[in-house]
Amino acid sequence: MAVTDPVADMLTKIRNASRAKFEKVDIATSKLKLEVIKILKNEGYIKNFKKTTVDGINYIRVFLKYDEQDKPIIHGIEKVSKPGRRIYSGYRKIPRVLNGYGTTIVSTSSGVTTGKKAAEKKIGGELICTVW
Hints:
The chain has helices spanning 6-19, 31-42, 115-121; strands spanning 24-28, 46-54, 57-64, 77-79, 88-89, 103-108, 111-114, 125-131. The protein is of the alpha+beta class. The strands form two sheets. Strands 4, 5, 6, 7 and 8 form a five-stranded antiparallel sheet that branches. It has a three-stranded antiparallel sheet with strand order 1-3-2, with helices on one face. Strand 2 and strand 3 (57-64) form a beta hairpin. It starts with 5 loop residues before the first helix and ends with a strand.
């Protein structure tokens, strides 16, 4: 079955795996997915990731992160812009997640970045997802 929104599928896999307390989850590779996962790593939402190949298909193996009480670090992860309704924002109107405790991931003309960094560079773009 064809996936119409691969990034939303990736976010759902991460959300479900963290709720089920899995150690890792494999996601099919794309440049956009890899950039989003790099941001999740830099912001401290996941432990690590690595590229793997299984039967000639490239995957990104994401290692999930949990706190001392074995609760997932990712409390919520939602897709904002969808294929049927793209959401764009200028740098002044990029939404803050949980009053700054969460992260907005934005696709800008200079690459995929967090909402905070996009506002500092004064560039807007498509809102990909929010994580908290």
